Amino acid sequence: MTRIFDDPADFADDQLAGFLDLYADRVRGVHGGVVSHRGERPQVAVVIGGGSGHYPAFCGTVGPGLATGAVVGNIFTSPSAAQAYSVGKAANQGRGVIFSFGNYAGDTINFGIAAERLRAEGIDTRIVVVTDDVASSDTEEERRGIAGDFTVFKVMGAAAAEGLGIDEVERLGNAANAATRTLGVAFSGCTMPGEEEPLFSVPEGHLGLGLGIHGEPGIRDVPMLPARDLAALLVDDVLKNTPAGAGRNVGVILNGLGTTKYEELFLLWRHIAPRLRDAGCELVEPEVGELVTSLDMGGCSLTLMWLDDELDALWRADAYTPAYRKAGAPVAALREPTADELADAEAVVTAPVAGEAGRRMAGTVRAALAAVESVIRENEHELGRIDAVAGDGDHGRGMVKGVTAATARIAECGDDVGGGWLLQQAGQAWAERAGGTSGVLWGAALESLGRHLGDTADSYPASTVAAGAREFAATIQLLGGAEPGDKTLLDALLPFVDELERRVGDGADLAEGWTAAAGIATGRARETAELRPRIGRARPLAEKSLGTPDAGATSMALVLTAVGTVLTSGEENA
Amino acid sequence: MTRIFDDPADFADDQLAGFLDLYADRVRGVHGGVVSHRGERPQVAVVIGGGSGHYPAFCGTVGPGLATGAVVGNIFTSPSAAQAYSVGKAANQGRGVIFSFGNYAGDTINFGIAAERLRAEGIDTRIVVVTDDVASSDTEEERRGIAGDFTVFKVMGAAAAEGLGIDEVERLGNAANAATRTLGVAFSGCTMPGEEEPLFSVPEGHLGLGLGIHGEPGIRDVPMLPARDLAALLVDDVLKNTPAGAGRNVGVILNGLGTTKYEELFLLWRHIAPRLRDAGCELVEPEVGELVTSLDMGGCSLTLMWLDDELDALWRADAYTPAYRKAGAPVAALREPTADELADAEAVVTAPVAGEAGRRMAGTVRAALAAVESVIRENEHELGRIDAVAGDGDHGRGMVKGVTAATARIAECGDDVGGGWLLQQAGQAWAERAGGTSGVLWGAALESLGRHLGDTADSYPASTVAAGAREFAATIQLLGGAEPGDKTLLDALLPFVDELERRVGDGADLAEGWTAAAGIATGRARETAELRPRIGRARPLAEKSLGTPDAGATSMALVLTAVGTVLTSGEENA
């Protein structure tokens, strides 16, 4: 729906005033439209136009290498002959004027009258009509002009910028039109400024094949298609209309009509490009985007211009306008990375050689993760139940996915790597597969713990592990932005780390300190799980990043307890 | 609504595949996103990113002078740390990596983890977070990043392209963010691929002030405003947030969110630009268009970046990416027309000096047009009634408007001009004011008749006038594209011309021949008005250009008869 306007009747003039303010450094307004500032040498004036509502057609493509002027009519309405005459006269640089526009009755008449008036004043004036829409008629003379406007204007704009004379520019424009074919589809209608209802509509779940850019009748309504099938429809129908004697090279436009977004067009292009190539086409500098729109209409069109050598060069030429800018130089100056650079970018970081202590730690890490996987699987349902009180109930599932990915990843690692490396690998796998913010935090915390411990120390005394636990918690605090009391896993983790540090500082061994601290965490988690959700506005990060507060503390306590059991049994085994 | 997709779950990957195919000459795909091909010299890698659905953010602005790489997450979802790490590593050219993104929890966490991983591999990695949305929080740290992403990325991209070191690029990025403020409004929600209902909605007839680009809560809903008031709201609220110590120069973005069209944005710009200037701002190379979108969301935002000398130069710098291309040179090479050129373009065509016969004809033309105005006014209602049978009933009104404008225009012409000139003036006025295709045809036909007769002949014998009538009819045939029998004014006009030529050829004087021929026209018009509309498909031009066929022939006959009366009484007076 069109939402921004003052008096809807003045929409076309009002938007033009804004356009002229914005681009005052390169165009000037004249009665009826827009004229480009002049280049170094006089050139044939290519004056395009038609109704408003099609931006960037028409004034958005005025500038070096494209149109010299644009006549701007009311929305979807031909400009008057007086407007076309005025713009043509202002655009003329002494080398003649070519009017070019899509084949609609009003435009044909008004530009025709303007041309007569200019000729009567001695200004050589020609007319090149665009007739690209294969859906509108079987005969070229009766076809409408739609997105193929752009290919024709582009060719003439480039030819005029090269300094060619009016006969040549006219001839090339007609050649471009003869080589251009478009088929469009509409998904939804467009709404005129000030109106509540669209100008026309497409039946729900359908697309209008061949619908015109002002809602003119199409060929038929067909049920909406997946992108792959839509691409096939467009490509095959346009190719059916290949001009006689056409070569392999084609300039291509996949044009969006307004509401259809660039991402949708790219998705469609993914199917269109290979289908065209399979049909033997060589795609020359394709354009995917909005070139001829129809207010907020939903839909798109595919345009092919078959290129001979002349058209090929003009299609590739540089242009610089408000809406369409093309310059070969910046792209030509780029290069793909060298083999060395690629190797750098893709270098897989390999495990450092682990010392004896590091390799011993690897055994503990494997045992601990196995125990964690086991306890998490046992409690998956209960964690989901707690989470569902205030969240979406997927915490158990997420934890299972994370820890399963972690144990699978370390199972792939060789026996000679250290525990620090295993923790880093486990963390990366956990983050990638668990999904959600708590999965990312668990993964990052494990990774930072592993990096902190490393694999090259001579030994891993309890104080080193306690410092690692602090690092683990700090990573979660830093990335998650939550604070104690926000009802997150920190409410179990931080008391655990505090107690572990205190016990180890007092001389306790690791298993003993860990087990005691895990007991504290379990108590806190129970309190947290039972508390009602905190009232009031949480900080945005805490709110978003730790959306499953109750269950998060509980799963943390379960993990810590399971690891404690492993550490204890490990000491007993040692 | 998002319409083009295959499996909605794969939308982000599928669209990226199309993008990579399209721009294979300048970017390459890597795990997690896109990396620019390399320039001549290694530069600091500016790696931007976030979820999909915001095109051209983020991959559309990768290229010389802007981002070095973009991480591409799922729709409205942060990319994973593994994706960000992969793109950062591939983008690194040995001079370090700066991750930059809008301030959202998921992005902060994932880019943070990726940065840690890169640093662990010895790659200097920095983070610049964008926090421009003044509606989202009172404190900078908690503000979201929206369209201000672009100003920050642009500044860093230009700084990196200049070859500055990572400390400098980071400093300038943070300075750009500190100098940037945005306020957005939403008119309508956006729809995820495969969904029928929008993700959120704005109450009918309202706009959501400060709504986030994923539908996050705004400040409040306010009733929809005319463009002038909407501009005032945006400008005043952004200016209220002017940073301390800001100067006069501002880079400006008026950003469209998806469904809001360029023409609407230009219309809004018409009010925004003067209001900013009135507030003392110097507008530096403003951008109006889509830079950060939100699928098919309706709405827009205003971003200001207050520029010191450093930021000013970087904002103005050239850039060349798929979606954003800027080059000063083509515009700098343009010039406004000289005074002579302007005089040529604006030269008013003056009446040629009329001979005696031409001046005598002027009297007949004035009398004839007065008689035509009188008979058309008398028959306005009847013409409307006939037209309403198959058309929109406005033919009488249109004829009155046309002839009234014509008589008013010739009343302004001096007594020394000829009848040929008066007919040309009358025709131009008629076409401009009557509206509709029949008005344009009447105007063009009168103009060509006047041009045919001219004002310099020694006499105007009946044969000259008959040839002029043929010219009058030929103009309508040529411009309108209709044929006899299409139920248009030609069905009265052509028999008239045939009969006039025949009578004059047989030696009749003008008044006699004209009156007899007008009688034939009246008879044919009556038949035409009584016939049922022709069944079958009319040619498009005939159908469109002559939409009021019955009434058109009738008004033609009325005019011809009235002119005949004037000619007869003129001969009697002579």
Secondary structure layout plus pairing:
2 copies of one chain form a homodimer.
Chain A: H1 11-22, E1 27-30, E2 33-36, E3 45-52, E4 69-75, H2 81-91, E5 97-102, H3 105-120, E6 125-130, H4 148-161, H5 166-178, E7 180-188, E8 206-209, E9 220-223, H6 227-240, E10 249-256, H7 262-278, E11 282-289, E12 298-306, H8 309-316, E13 319-320, E14 325-326, H9 328-332, H10 339-346, H11 356-390, H12 395-411, H13 419-434, H14 436-453, H15 462-480, H16 490-505, H17 510-530, H18 540-545, H19 549-573
Parallel strand pairs in A: 3-4, 3-5, 5-6, 10-11
Antiparallel strand pairs in A: 1-2, 2-4, 7-8, 7-12, 8-9, 10-12, 13-14
Helix pairs in contact in A: 2-3, 4-5, 6-7, 11-12, 11-13, 11-19, 12-13, 12-14, 13-14, 14-15, 15-16, 16-17, 16-19, 17-19
Give structural attributes:
574 residues, 19 helices, Serine Threonine Protein Phosphatase 5, Tetratricopeptide repeat, 14% strand, 6-stranded mixed beta sheet, elongated, Rossmann fold
CATH architecture annotation of the largest domain in chain A: 3-Layer(aba) Sandwich
So what's the CATH class of the largest domain in chain A?
A: Alpha Beta
Kindly report the oligomeric state of this protein: homodimer
Average pLDDT score of chain A: 92
What is the helix fraction of residues of chain A, given as a range? 40-55%
Percentage of residues in strands of chain A: 5-15%
Overall shape of chain A: elongated
Q: Largest beta sheet of chain A: what is the strand line-up? A: 1-2-4-3-5-6
Structural class assignment of chain A: alpha/beta
Please work out how many helical segments of chain A DSSP would assign: 19
CATH superfamily of the largest domain in chain A: Dihydroxyacetone kinase, domain 1
Q: Spans of chain A with pLDDT under 50 lasting ≥5 residues? A: 532-549
Overall domain count of chain A: 2
And the CATH topology of the largest domain in chain A? Answer: Rossmann fold
Main sheet characteristics of chain A: 6 strands, mixed
> Most extensive interface: pair and counts?
A-B, 126 and 124 residues
Extended strand count of chain A: 14
Our Rg estimate of chain A from Cα atoms comes to: 34 Å
Q: First CA to last CA of chain A: what distance?
A: 74 Å
GO molecular function, one term (chains A, B): ATP binding
Keywords (chains A, B): ATP-binding, Kinase, Nucleotide-binding, Transferase
Protein name (chains A, B): Homodimeric dihydroxyacetone kinase
Domain DhaK (chains A, B): 7-324
